[in-house]
Design goal:
CATH topology of the largest domain: Rossmann fold
Largest sheet: 6 strands, mixed
Distance between the termini: 70 Å
Oligomer: single chain
Structural class: alpha/beta
Shape: elongated
Amino acid sequence: MRHHRNDLSSPGDGRRGVPVNALRGLAPYLWQYRWRVSLALVMLLTAKLANVGVPIVLKHIVDDLAPGPGNPRAVLVVPVALLVAYGMLRVGASMFTELRELVFSRVTQGAVRRVALQVFDHLLDLSLRYHLERQTGGMSRDIERGTRGISSLVSYTLYTVLPTLVEMALVIGILIVRYDWWFAGIALVALVVYVTFTVVVTEWRSGLRRTMNEQDSNANQRAVDALLNYETVKIFGNEAHESRRYDDNLRQWMDAAVKSQNSLSLLNLGQSLIIASAVTLLVWRATVGVVAGTLKLGDLVLVNAFMLQLYAPLSFLGVLYREIRQALTDIERMFTILDQHRDVADAPDARPLAVSRGSVRFDNVFFDYPNGRQVLKGVSFEIAGGETLAVVGPSGAGKSTLSRLLFRFYDVSGGSIRVDDQDIREVTQASLRASLGLVPQDTVLFNDTIGYNIAYGRPGATQDEIEAVARAAQIHDFIARQPLGYKTQVGERGLKLSGGEKQRVAIARALLKEPAILLFDEATSHLDSANERAIQAEIRMASRNRTTLIVAHRLSTVVDAHQILVLDDGRIVERGTHVQLLESGGLYARMWALQRKHEGDEAFLVEDPASAPMRA
Protein backbone atom coordinates (compact mmCIF):
# COMPACT_ATOMS: atom_id res chain seq x y z
CA MET A 1 0.00 0.00 0.00
CA ARG A 2 1.42 3.42 -0.98
CA HIS A 3 0.76 6.07 1.64
CA HIS A 4 1.29 9.22 -0.41
CA ARG A 5 -0.35 11.06 2.47
CA ASN A 6 3.13 11.19 3.99
CA ASP A 7 4.40 13.49 1.26
CA LEU A 8 4.40 17.28 1.53
CA SER A 9 4.89 19.81 -1.21
CA SER A 10 6.71 22.31 0.98
CA PRO A 11 10.26 21.83 2.23
CA GLY A 12 11.17 21.56 5.85
CA ASP A 13 12.87 24.51 7.43
CA GLY A 14 15.75 22.49 8.72
CA ARG A 15 15.27 23.55 12.32
CA ARG A 16 15.26 20.74 14.82
CA GLY A 17 13.53 20.42 18.12
CA VAL A 18 10.14 21.50 19.35
CA PRO A 19 9.86 25.26 19.90
CA VAL A 20 8.64 25.05 23.48
CA ASN A 21 8.38 28.83 23.60
CA ALA A 22 5.48 28.60 21.15
CA LEU A 23 3.60 26.18 23.40
CA ARG A 24 4.37 28.27 26.48
CA GLY A 25 3.20 31.42 24.74
CA LEU A 26 0.00 29.83 23.44
CA ALA A 27 -1.09 28.28 26.76
CA PRO A 28 -2.56 31.47 28.34
CA TYR A 29 -4.81 32.05 25.33
CA LEU A 30 -6.23 28.54 25.58
CA TRP A 31 -6.50 28.71 29.36
CA GLN A 32 -9.09 31.45 29.01
CA TYR A 33 -11.40 28.81 27.50
CA ARG A 34 -10.51 26.09 30.01
CA TRP A 35 -14.13 25.03 30.54
CA ARG A 36 -14.67 24.57 26.84
CA VAL A 37 -11.35 22.73 26.60
CA SER A 38 -12.38 20.44 29.46
CA LEU A 39 -15.76 19.76 27.88
CA ALA A 40 -14.12 19.08 24.52
CA LEU A 41 -11.75 16.60 26.18
CA VAL A 42 -14.73 14.83 27.77
CA MET A 43 -16.35 14.64 24.34
CA LEU A 44 -13.08 13.33 22.93
CA LEU A 45 -12.81 10.61 25.54
CA THR A 46 -16.46 9.62 25.07
CA ALA A 47 -16.02 9.43 21.29
CA LYS A 48 -12.95 7.22 21.67
CA LEU A 49 -14.66 4.96 24.20
CA ALA A 50 -17.48 4.49 21.70
CA ASN A 51 -14.96 3.89 18.93
CA VAL A 52 -13.09 1.28 20.93
CA GLY A 53 -16.39 -0.27 21.97
CA VAL A 54 -17.31 -1.04 18.36
CA PRO A 55 -14.78 -3.93 17.94
CA ILE A 56 -15.72 -5.26 21.39
CA VAL A 57 -19.43 -5.46 20.47
CA LEU A 58 -18.45 -6.94 17.11
CA LYS A 59 -16.53 -9.65 18.98
CA HIS A 60 -19.62 -10.56 21.00
CA ILE A 61 -21.76 -10.64 17.85
CA VAL A 62 -19.30 -13.02 16.22
CA ASP A 63 -19.11 -15.16 19.38
CA ASP A 64 -22.91 -15.37 19.59
CA LEU A 65 -23.25 -16.26 15.94
CA ALA A 66 -20.35 -18.68 15.82
CA PRO A 67 -21.56 -22.32 15.92
CA GLY A 68 -20.17 -24.48 18.67
CA PRO A 69 -20.94 -27.33 21.06
CA GLY A 70 -22.95 -25.08 23.35
CA ASN A 71 -24.61 -23.06 20.59
CA PRO A 72 -25.53 -25.31 17.62
CA ARG A 73 -28.31 -23.02 16.35
CA ALA A 74 -26.43 -19.72 16.96
CA VAL A 75 -26.24 -18.98 13.27
CA LEU A 76 -30.03 -18.77 13.13
CA VAL A 77 -30.31 -16.35 16.04
CA VAL A 78 -29.72 -12.65 15.41
CA PRO A 79 -28.33 -10.89 18.53
CA VAL A 80 -30.62 -7.86 18.13
CA ALA A 81 -29.44 -6.12 21.32
CA LEU A 82 -25.81 -6.37 20.21
CA LEU A 83 -26.63 -5.11 16.72
CA VAL A 84 -28.44 -2.11 18.22
CA ALA A 85 -25.48 -1.48 20.53
CA TYR A 86 -23.10 -1.77 17.58
CA GLY A 87 -25.04 0.83 15.61
CA MET A 88 -25.39 3.15 18.59
CA LEU A 89 -21.67 3.02 19.29
CA ARG A 90 -20.84 3.89 15.69
CA VAL A 91 -23.30 6.77 15.71
CA GLY A 92 -22.08 7.83 19.14
CA ALA A 93 -18.46 7.92 18.04
CA SER A 94 -19.33 10.24 15.15
CA MET A 95 -21.76 12.32 17.21
CA PHE A 96 -19.35 12.99 20.06
CA THR A 97 -16.57 13.75 17.57
CA GLU A 98 -18.72 16.43 15.95
CA LEU A 99 -19.82 17.76 19.36
CA ARG A 100 -16.14 18.05 20.32
CA GLU A 101 -15.45 20.13 17.24
CA LEU A 102 -18.56 22.23 17.89
CA VAL A 103 -17.47 22.96 21.46
CA PHE A 104 -13.83 23.59 20.59
CA SER A 105 -14.27 25.76 17.47
CA ARG A 106 -14.69 28.91 19.57
CA VAL A 107 -11.49 28.07 21.47
CA THR A 108 -9.41 27.92 18.30
CA GLN A 109 -10.86 31.01 16.66
CA GLY A 110 -10.91 32.91 19.95
CA ALA A 111 -7.23 32.17 20.54
CA VAL A 112 -6.36 33.27 16.99
CA ARG A 113 -8.33 36.51 17.46
CA ARG A 114 -6.75 37.33 20.82
CA VAL A 115 -3.20 36.61 19.63
CA ALA A 116 -3.62 38.60 16.41
CA LEU A 117 -5.12 41.55 18.31
CA GLN A 118 -2.37 41.49 20.93
CA VAL A 119 0.36 41.39 18.28
CA PHE A 120 -1.31 44.28 16.42
CA ASP A 121 -1.65 46.36 19.59
CA HIS A 122 1.94 45.58 20.53
CA LEU A 123 3.17 46.70 17.12
CA LEU A 124 1.37 50.01 17.56
CA ASP A 125 3.00 50.39 20.99
CA LEU A 126 6.53 49.74 19.74
CA SER A 127 8.86 52.66 19.20
CA LEU A 128 9.53 54.37 15.89
CA ARG A 129 12.98 52.76 15.60
CA TYR A 130 11.43 49.29 15.29
CA HIS A 131 9.05 50.40 12.54
CA LEU A 132 11.82 52.15 10.61
CA GLU A 133 13.98 49.01 10.68
CA ARG A 134 11.24 46.46 10.07
CA GLN A 135 10.44 44.72 6.78
CA THR A 136 6.68 45.15 6.62
CA GLY A 137 6.09 42.37 4.10
CA GLY A 138 8.08 39.81 6.07
CA MET A 139 6.52 40.85 9.36
CA SER A 140 2.96 40.61 8.02
CA ARG A 141 3.80 37.16 6.63
CA ASP A 142 5.10 36.11 10.06
CA ILE A 143 1.83 37.23 11.66
CA GLU A 144 -0.25 35.55 8.96
CA ARG A 145 1.66 32.28 9.23
CA GLY A 146 1.62 32.46 13.03
CA THR A 147 -2.15 32.87 13.31
CA ARG A 148 -2.66 30.14 10.72
CA GLY A 149 -0.20 27.99 12.67
CA ILE A 150 -2.37 28.30 15.80
CA SER A 151 -5.37 26.90 13.93
CA SER A 152 -3.24 24.14 12.42
CA LEU A 153 -1.59 23.22 15.71
CA VAL A 154 -4.83 23.08 17.68
CA SER A 155 -6.63 21.19 14.91
CA TYR A 156 -3.89 18.61 14.46
CA THR A 157 -3.34 18.03 18.16
CA LEU A 158 -6.98 17.96 19.29
CA TYR A 159 -8.51 16.31 16.24
CA THR A 160 -5.78 13.83 15.29
CA VAL A 161 -2.82 13.43 17.64
CA LEU A 162 -4.66 13.47 20.97
CA PRO A 163 -7.50 11.16 19.80
CA THR A 164 -4.91 8.73 18.43
CA LEU A 165 -2.99 8.75 21.73
CA VAL A 166 -6.19 8.20 23.70
CA GLU A 167 -7.18 5.34 21.43
CA MET A 168 -3.70 3.82 21.74
CA ALA A 169 -3.92 3.94 25.52
CA LEU A 170 -7.42 2.39 25.54
CA VAL A 171 -6.51 -0.39 23.11
CA ILE A 172 -3.27 -1.31 24.86
CA GLY A 173 -5.07 -1.16 28.22
CA ILE A 174 -7.76 -3.56 26.97
CA LEU A 175 -5.12 -5.91 25.55
CA ILE A 176 -3.31 -5.92 28.90
CA VAL A 177 -6.50 -6.59 30.90
CA ARG A 178 -8.18 -9.14 28.62
CA TYR A 179 -5.24 -11.00 27.08
CA ASP A 180 -1.73 -12.13 27.91
CA TRP A 181 1.19 -9.73 27.77
CA TRP A 182 2.18 -10.81 24.26
CA PHE A 183 -0.66 -8.87 22.70
CA ALA A 184 0.08 -5.60 24.49
CA GLY A 185 3.83 -6.07 24.03
CA ILE A 186 3.59 -6.63 20.28
CA ALA A 187 1.25 -3.62 19.85
CA LEU A 188 3.39 -1.33 21.99
CA VAL A 189 6.71 -2.29 20.38
CA ALA A 190 5.19 -1.91 16.92
CA LEU A 191 3.89 1.56 17.78
CA VAL A 192 7.28 2.69 19.10
CA VAL A 193 9.10 1.33 16.05
CA TYR A 194 6.50 2.85 13.69
CA VAL A 195 6.69 6.33 15.25
CA THR A 196 10.50 6.30 15.48
CA PHE A 197 10.90 5.13 11.90
CA THR A 198 8.46 7.74 10.58
CA VAL A 199 10.08 10.64 12.46
CA VAL A 200 13.62 9.68 11.44
CA VAL A 201 12.78 9.19 7.76
CA THR A 202 10.65 12.36 7.67
CA GLU A 203 13.58 14.39 9.05
CA TRP A 204 15.82 12.91 6.38
CA ARG A 205 13.24 13.63 3.68
CA SER A 206 13.01 17.26 4.79
CA GLY A 207 16.56 17.86 3.62
CA LEU A 208 15.87 16.15 0.30
CA ARG A 209 12.72 18.19 -0.26
CA ARG A 210 14.56 21.37 0.59
CA THR A 211 17.32 20.58 -1.91
CA MET A 212 14.77 19.71 -4.59
CA ASN A 213 12.89 22.98 -4.14
CA GLU A 214 16.12 25.00 -4.13
CA GLN A 215 17.16 23.42 -7.44
CA ASP A 216 13.70 24.02 -8.85
CA SER A 217 13.95 27.70 -7.91
CA ASN A 218 17.45 27.95 -9.37
CA ALA A 219 16.34 26.40 -12.65
CA ASN A 220 13.34 28.70 -12.88
CA GLN A 221 15.49 31.74 -12.07
CA ARG A 222 18.01 30.73 -14.74
CA ALA A 223 15.31 30.36 -17.39
CA VAL A 224 13.61 33.65 -16.53
CA ASP A 225 16.93 35.51 -16.47
CA ALA A 226 17.83 34.19 -19.93
CA LEU A 227 14.42 35.08 -21.36
CA LEU A 228 14.46 38.57 -19.86
CA ASN A 229 17.87 39.12 -21.46
CA TYR A 230 16.79 37.58 -24.78
CA GLU A 231 18.45 40.27 -26.91
CA THR A 232 21.78 39.94 -25.12
CA VAL A 233 21.68 36.14 -25.53
CA LYS A 234 20.96 36.48 -29.25
CA ILE A 235 23.55 39.22 -29.78
CA PHE A 236 26.34 37.07 -28.36
CA GLY A 237 24.99 33.83 -29.84
CA ASN A 238 24.91 32.13 -26.45
CA GLU A 239 21.73 30.10 -26.86
CA ALA A 240 23.57 26.80 -26.41
CA HIS A 241 25.42 28.20 -23.38
CA GLU A 242 22.17 29.23 -21.69
CA SER A 243 20.57 25.89 -22.57
CA ARG A 244 23.47 24.01 -20.96
CA ARG A 245 23.27 26.13 -17.78
CA TYR A 246 19.50 25.58 -17.59
CA ASP A 247 19.92 21.86 -18.16
CA ASP A 248 22.55 21.67 -15.40
CA ASN A 249 20.01 23.03 -12.94
CA LEU A 250 17.29 20.74 -14.30
CA ARG A 251 19.60 17.72 -13.90
CA GLN A 252 20.32 18.62 -10.28
CA TRP A 253 16.60 19.13 -9.68
CA MET A 254 15.84 15.77 -11.29
CA ASP A 255 18.38 13.97 -9.10
CA ALA A 256 16.94 15.58 -5.96
CA ALA A 257 13.36 14.85 -7.09
CA VAL A 258 14.19 11.17 -7.71
CA LYS A 259 15.80 10.88 -4.27
CA SER A 260 12.78 12.55 -2.70
CA GLN A 261 10.37 10.19 -4.44
CA ASN A 262 12.50 7.18 -3.51
CA SER A 263 12.56 8.31 0.11
CA LEU A 264 8.75 8.54 0.04
CA SER A 265 8.55 5.01 -1.29
CA LEU A 266 10.94 3.88 1.45
CA LEU A 267 8.80 5.59 4.08
CA ASN A 268 5.56 4.06 2.80
CA LEU A 269 7.13 0.61 2.44
CA GLY A 270 8.64 0.73 5.93
CA GLN A 271 5.36 1.80 7.49
CA SER A 272 3.49 -0.96 5.66
CA LEU A 273 6.03 -3.59 6.76
CA ILE A 274 5.80 -2.51 10.41
CA ILE A 275 1.98 -2.52 10.36
CA ALA A 276 1.79 -5.83 8.48
CA SER A 277 4.30 -7.47 10.83
CA ALA A 278 2.48 -6.28 13.95
CA VAL A 279 -0.97 -7.32 12.68
CA THR A 280 0.37 -10.69 11.51
CA LEU A 281 1.97 -11.40 14.91
CA LEU A 282 -1.18 -10.41 16.78
CA VAL A 283 -3.43 -12.49 14.50
CA TRP A 284 -1.01 -15.41 14.94
CA ARG A 285 -1.21 -15.12 18.73
CA ALA A 286 -5.01 -14.88 18.54
CA THR A 287 -5.18 -17.88 16.18
CA VAL A 288 -3.06 -19.95 18.55
CA GLY A 289 -5.43 -18.99 21.37
CA VAL A 290 -8.52 -19.97 19.35
CA VAL A 291 -6.99 -23.33 18.42
CA ALA A 292 -6.00 -23.94 22.04
CA GLY A 293 -9.51 -23.03 23.20
CA THR A 294 -8.35 -20.14 25.41
CA LEU A 295 -9.79 -17.57 23.02
CA LYS A 296 -12.95 -17.40 20.94
CA LEU A 297 -13.35 -16.58 17.30
CA GLY A 298 -14.58 -13.12 18.28
CA ASP A 299 -11.24 -12.43 19.98
CA LEU A 300 -9.49 -12.94 16.66
CA VAL A 301 -11.84 -10.44 15.04
CA LEU A 302 -11.40 -8.04 17.97
CA VAL A 303 -7.60 -8.01 17.85
CA ASN A 304 -7.53 -7.56 14.07
CA ALA A 305 -10.11 -4.73 14.21
CA PHE A 306 -8.18 -3.02 17.00
CA MET A 307 -4.97 -2.99 15.02
CA LEU A 308 -6.50 -1.80 11.77
CA GLN A 309 -8.43 0.87 13.64
CA LEU A 310 -5.34 1.95 15.53
CA TYR A 311 -2.93 2.12 12.59
CA ALA A 312 -5.28 3.93 10.19
CA PRO A 313 -4.61 7.43 11.62
CA LEU A 314 -0.89 6.66 11.92
CA SER A 315 -0.58 6.56 8.13
CA PHE A 316 -0.75 10.37 8.32
CA LEU A 317 1.99 10.60 10.93
CA GLY A 318 4.63 11.92 8.53
CA VAL A 319 2.38 14.77 7.44
CA LEU A 320 1.29 15.52 11.00
CA TYR A 321 4.84 15.60 12.32
CA ARG A 322 5.98 18.01 9.62
CA GLU A 323 2.90 20.24 9.88
CA ILE A 324 2.95 20.42 13.67
CA ARG A 325 6.64 21.25 13.75
CA GLN A 326 6.17 23.94 11.10
CA ALA A 327 3.15 25.34 12.97
CA LEU A 328 5.16 25.54 16.20
CA THR A 329 7.97 27.33 14.37
CA ASP A 330 5.56 29.82 12.78
CA ILE A 331 3.90 30.52 16.14
CA GLU A 332 7.25 31.03 17.81
CA ARG A 333 8.31 33.51 15.10
CA MET A 334 5.12 35.46 15.68
CA PHE A 335 5.64 35.47 19.45
CA THR A 336 9.12 36.94 18.95
CA ILE A 337 7.32 40.13 17.90
CA LEU A 338 5.71 40.23 21.34
CA ASP A 339 9.19 39.90 22.86
CA GLN A 340 10.23 43.20 21.28
CA HIS A 341 10.48 45.92 23.92
CA ARG A 342 9.64 49.59 23.48
CA ASP A 343 12.58 51.98 23.42
CA VAL A 344 10.34 54.73 24.74
CA ALA A 345 7.98 53.82 27.58
CA ASP A 346 5.94 55.78 30.08
CA ALA A 347 7.52 56.24 33.48
CA PRO A 348 5.83 54.20 36.24
CA ASP A 349 4.56 57.40 37.85
CA ALA A 350 3.78 59.23 34.59
CA ARG A 351 0.86 61.63 34.84
CA PRO A 352 -1.29 63.23 32.11
CA LEU A 353 0.06 66.39 30.54
CA ALA A 354 -1.70 69.53 31.75
CA VAL A 355 -1.66 72.16 28.99
CA SER A 356 -2.40 75.78 29.83
CA ARG A 357 -0.37 78.24 27.72
CA GLY A 358 1.08 75.62 25.39
CA SER A 359 4.67 76.84 25.66
CA VAL A 360 7.46 74.57 24.45
CA ARG A 361 11.08 74.69 25.62
CA PHE A 362 14.08 72.75 24.36
CA ASP A 363 16.75 73.00 27.04
CA ASN A 364 20.29 72.09 25.90
CA VAL A 365 19.03 69.09 23.92
CA PHE A 366 21.46 66.51 22.60
CA PHE A 367 20.33 63.58 20.51
CA ASP A 368 22.05 60.56 18.95
CA TYR A 369 20.20 58.09 16.76
CA PRO A 370 20.52 54.40 17.72
CA ASN A 371 23.16 53.92 15.01
CA GLY A 372 25.39 56.39 16.90
CA ARG A 373 24.97 59.37 14.56
CA GLN A 374 24.77 62.57 16.58
CA VAL A 375 22.11 64.91 15.23
CA LEU A 376 21.47 67.61 17.83
CA LYS A 377 24.24 69.22 19.82
CA GLY A 378 23.03 71.43 22.66
CA VAL A 379 19.92 72.93 21.05
CA SER A 380 18.02 75.42 23.23
CA PHE A 381 15.00 77.54 22.36
CA GLU A 382 11.53 78.40 23.64
CA ILE A 383 8.21 78.93 21.91
CA ALA A 384 5.86 81.10 23.94
CA GLY A 385 2.23 80.07 24.08
CA GLY A 386 0.36 81.16 20.93
CA GLU A 387 3.51 82.14 19.02
CA THR A 388 5.07 80.67 15.89
CA LEU A 389 8.69 79.55 15.71
CA ALA A 390 10.32 78.35 12.51
CA VAL A 391 13.39 76.19 12.09
CA VAL A 392 15.30 76.28 8.80
CA GLY A 393 18.64 75.01 7.62
CA PRO A 394 20.40 72.72 5.17
CA SER A 395 19.32 69.12 4.65
CA GLY A 396 20.58 66.86 7.41
CA ALA A 397 20.87 69.69 9.92
CA GLY A 398 18.45 67.93 12.31
CA LYS A 399 15.28 69.94 11.66
CA SER A 400 12.79 67.05 11.40
CA THR A 401 14.35 65.42 14.44
CA LEU A 402 12.88 68.22 16.57
CA SER A 403 9.31 67.12 15.83
CA ARG A 404 10.13 63.46 16.44
CA LEU A 405 11.59 64.35 19.82
CA LEU A 406 8.62 66.55 20.71
CA PHE A 407 6.25 63.68 19.88
CA ARG A 408 8.59 61.50 21.95
CA PHE A 409 9.15 58.96 19.24
CA TYR A 410 12.68 59.06 20.65
CA ASP A 411 13.99 60.24 24.01
CA VAL A 412 16.65 62.92 24.12
CA SER A 413 20.22 61.81 24.77
CA GLY A 414 20.81 64.86 26.94
CA GLY A 415 18.94 67.92 28.16
CA SER A 416 15.15 68.10 28.31
CA ILE A 417 12.02 69.10 26.43
CA ARG A 418 9.26 70.77 28.41
CA VAL A 419 5.67 71.67 27.62
CA ASP A 420 4.32 74.25 30.06
CA ASP A 421 7.30 73.47 32.34
CA GLN A 422 6.52 69.72 32.38
CA ASP A 423 9.27 67.37 31.22
CA ILE A 424 7.65 65.25 28.51
CA ARG A 425 9.44 62.15 29.90
CA GLU A 426 7.39 62.51 33.06
CA VAL A 427 3.97 62.59 31.40
CA THR A 428 2.06 59.89 29.54
CA GLN A 429 2.76 59.63 25.84
CA ALA A 430 -0.96 59.44 25.03
CA SER A 431 -1.69 62.79 26.74
CA LEU A 432 1.39 64.38 25.16
CA ARG A 433 0.43 63.36 21.64
CA ALA A 434 -3.20 64.34 22.26
CA SER A 435 -2.01 67.94 22.68
CA LEU A 436 0.08 67.89 19.47
CA GLY A 437 -1.02 68.18 15.86
CA LEU A 438 1.21 67.47 12.88
CA VAL A 439 1.11 68.25 9.17
CA PRO A 440 3.97 66.12 7.82
CA GLN A 441 6.18 66.47 4.80
CA ASP A 442 4.73 63.35 3.17
CA THR A 443 1.00 63.18 3.86
CA VAL A 444 -0.05 59.54 3.90
CA LEU A 445 -3.79 58.96 3.69
CA PHE A 446 -5.71 55.77 4.38
CA ASN A 447 -7.25 54.00 1.41
CA ASP A 448 -10.71 55.23 2.37
CA THR A 449 -12.89 58.28 1.84
CA ILE A 450 -11.87 61.91 2.15
CA GLY A 451 -14.32 62.24 5.02
CA TYR A 452 -12.77 59.31 6.87
CA ASN A 453 -9.27 60.73 6.46
CA ILE A 454 -10.28 64.13 7.82
CA ALA A 455 -12.25 62.53 10.67
CA TYR A 456 -9.15 60.53 11.62
CA GLY A 457 -8.02 63.59 13.52
CA ARG A 458 -10.84 62.97 15.98
CA PRO A 459 -12.81 59.74 15.38
CA GLY A 460 -16.46 60.30 16.17
CA ALA A 461 -16.54 63.91 14.98
CA THR A 462 -19.82 65.05 13.44
CA GLN A 463 -20.23 65.81 9.75
CA ASP A 464 -20.65 69.50 10.54
CA GLU A 465 -17.33 69.53 12.41
CA ILE A 466 -15.61 67.75 9.51
CA GLU A 467 -16.97 70.25 7.00
CA ALA A 468 -15.99 73.19 9.23
CA VAL A 469 -12.30 72.20 9.30
CA ALA A 470 -12.44 71.36 5.58
CA ARG A 471 -13.60 74.91 4.91
CA ALA A 472 -10.85 76.26 7.15
CA ALA A 473 -8.29 74.24 5.17
CA GLN A 474 -9.77 75.46 1.84
CA ILE A 475 -10.64 71.91 0.72
CA HIS A 476 -14.44 71.91 1.16
CA ASP A 477 -15.24 73.41 -2.25
CA PHE A 478 -13.08 70.82 -3.99
CA ILE A 479 -14.80 68.00 -2.09
CA ALA A 480 -18.25 69.43 -2.83
CA ARG A 481 -17.49 69.31 -6.57
CA GLN A 482 -16.85 65.56 -6.44
CA PRO A 483 -19.82 63.29 -7.35
CA LEU A 484 -19.54 61.42 -4.04
CA GLY A 485 -18.53 64.43 -1.95
CA TYR A 486 -16.95 63.43 1.35
CA LYS A 487 -17.41 59.76 0.40
CA THR A 488 -14.92 60.11 -2.45
CA GLN A 489 -12.23 57.43 -2.24
CA VAL A 490 -8.66 58.78 -2.07
CA GLY A 491 -6.93 55.60 -3.25
CA GLU A 492 -3.84 53.83 -1.94
CA ARG A 493 -1.85 56.33 0.17
CA GLY A 494 -4.07 59.09 -1.24
CA LEU A 495 -2.74 58.75 -4.79
CA LYS A 496 -6.01 60.00 -6.33
CA LEU A 497 -5.38 63.45 -4.85
CA SER A 498 -2.78 65.99 -5.86
CA GLY A 499 -0.04 67.07 -3.49
CA GLY A 500 -1.85 70.29 -2.60
CA GLU A 501 -5.13 68.48 -1.97
CA LYS A 502 -3.44 65.94 0.29
CA GLN A 503 -1.78 68.72 2.27
CA ARG A 504 -5.15 70.45 2.74
CA VAL A 505 -6.65 67.19 3.99
CA ALA A 506 -3.71 66.88 6.40
CA ILE A 507 -4.29 70.44 7.66
CA ALA A 508 -8.01 69.77 8.11
CA ARG A 509 -7.24 66.56 9.97
CA ALA A 510 -4.82 68.36 12.27
CA LEU A 511 -7.31 71.17 12.93
CA LEU A 512 -10.07 68.68 13.78
CA LYS A 513 -7.84 67.29 16.52
CA GLU A 514 -7.88 70.77 18.11
CA PRO A 515 -4.28 70.55 19.36
CA ALA A 516 -2.73 73.12 21.66
CA ILE A 517 0.57 72.83 19.76
CA LEU A 518 0.77 72.52 15.99
CA LEU A 519 3.77 71.30 13.97
CA PHE A 520 4.39 71.70 10.26
CA ASP A 521 7.24 69.43 9.19
CA GLU A 522 8.32 70.69 5.74
CA ALA A 523 4.65 70.63 4.75
CA THR A 524 5.20 72.37 1.39
CA SER A 525 8.54 70.91 0.29
CA HIS A 526 6.99 68.71 -2.44
CA LEU A 527 4.57 71.30 -3.82
CA ASP A 528 4.93 73.59 -6.82
CA SER A 529 5.04 77.34 -6.32
CA ALA A 530 1.32 77.89 -6.96
CA ASN A 531 0.21 75.26 -4.48
CA GLU A 532 2.84 76.34 -2.00
CA ARG A 533 1.52 79.91 -1.97
CA ALA A 534 -2.01 78.62 -1.43
CA ILE A 535 -0.96 76.31 1.41
CA GLN A 536 0.99 79.12 3.09
CA ALA A 537 -2.22 81.03 3.74
CA GLU A 538 -3.78 77.96 5.34
CA ILE A 539 -0.71 77.45 7.51
CA ARG A 540 -0.95 81.04 8.72
CA MET A 541 -4.64 80.59 9.45
CA ALA A 542 -4.13 77.28 11.25
CA SER A 543 -1.30 78.77 13.34
CA ARG A 544 -3.40 81.67 14.58
CA ASN A 545 -3.64 81.64 18.41
CA ARG A 546 -1.76 78.32 18.57
CA THR A 547 1.76 77.49 19.60
CA THR A 548 3.31 76.51 16.28
CA LEU A 549 6.60 74.96 15.23
CA ILE A 550 7.34 75.14 11.52
CA VAL A 551 10.18 73.04 10.15
CA ALA A 552 10.87 74.27 6.64
CA HIS A 553 13.27 73.98 3.77
CA ARG A 554 11.59 76.70 1.70
CA LEU A 555 12.12 79.99 3.50
CA SER A 556 9.02 81.53 1.94
CA THR A 557 6.87 79.60 4.43
CA VAL A 558 8.47 81.16 7.51
CA VAL A 559 8.72 84.89 6.79
CA ASP A 560 5.86 85.67 9.19
CA ALA A 561 7.17 83.61 12.12
CA HIS A 562 7.73 85.39 15.43
CA GLN A 563 11.20 83.84 15.54
CA ILE A 564 13.31 81.89 13.09
CA LEU A 565 16.10 79.51 14.07
CA VAL A 566 18.82 78.53 11.61
CA LEU A 567 20.05 75.02 12.34
CA ASP A 568 23.31 73.76 10.90
CA ASP A 569 25.11 70.54 11.81
CA GLY A 570 22.92 70.07 14.89
CA ARG A 571 23.52 73.52 16.32
CA ILE A 572 21.60 76.78 16.22
CA VAL A 573 23.83 79.19 14.33
CA GLU A 574 21.39 82.10 13.92
CA ARG A 575 18.09 83.23 15.39
CA GLY A 576 15.81 86.23 14.85
CA THR A 577 12.99 87.47 12.65
CA HIS A 578 13.05 87.29 8.87
CA VAL A 579 14.13 90.92 8.56
CA GLN A 580 16.78 90.64 11.25
CA LEU A 581 18.31 87.54 9.69
CA LEU A 582 18.42 89.13 6.26
CA GLU A 583 20.14 92.18 7.70
CA SER A 584 22.74 90.05 9.49
CA GLY A 585 23.95 88.67 6.17
CA GLY A 586 24.64 85.17 7.52
CA LEU A 587 23.59 81.67 6.45
CA TYR A 588 19.90 82.55 6.36
CA ALA A 589 20.52 85.50 4.02
CA ARG A 590 22.61 83.32 1.69
CA MET A 591 19.91 80.61 1.65
CA TRP A 592 17.27 83.24 0.93
CA ALA A 593 19.27 84.64 -2.00
CA LEU A 594 19.87 81.17 -3.47
CA GLN A 595 16.21 80.22 -3.27
CA ARG A 596 15.10 83.47 -4.87
CA LYS A 597 17.55 82.92 -7.69
CA HIS A 598 16.46 79.30 -8.17
CA GLU A 599 12.70 79.69 -7.96
CA GLY A 600 12.23 83.25 -9.20
CA ASP A 601 10.82 86.26 -7.42
CA GLU A 602 7.25 85.26 -8.13
CA ALA A 603 7.58 82.15 -5.97
CA PHE A 604 7.89 84.39 -2.91
CA LEU A 605 4.84 86.53 -3.50
CA VAL A 606 1.94 86.11 -1.10
CA GLU A 607 -1.25 85.31 -2.98
CA ASP A 608 -4.87 85.00 -1.94
CA PRO A 609 -5.37 81.25 -1.39
CA ALA A 610 -8.81 81.40 -2.94
CA SER A 611 -7.18 82.14 -6.28
CA ALA A 612 -4.81 79.18 -6.10
CA PRO A 613 -5.64 76.54 -8.72
CA MET A 614 -6.79 73.14 -7.49
CA ARG A 615 -7.09 69.94 -9.39
CA ALA A 616 -10.70 68.83 -9.72
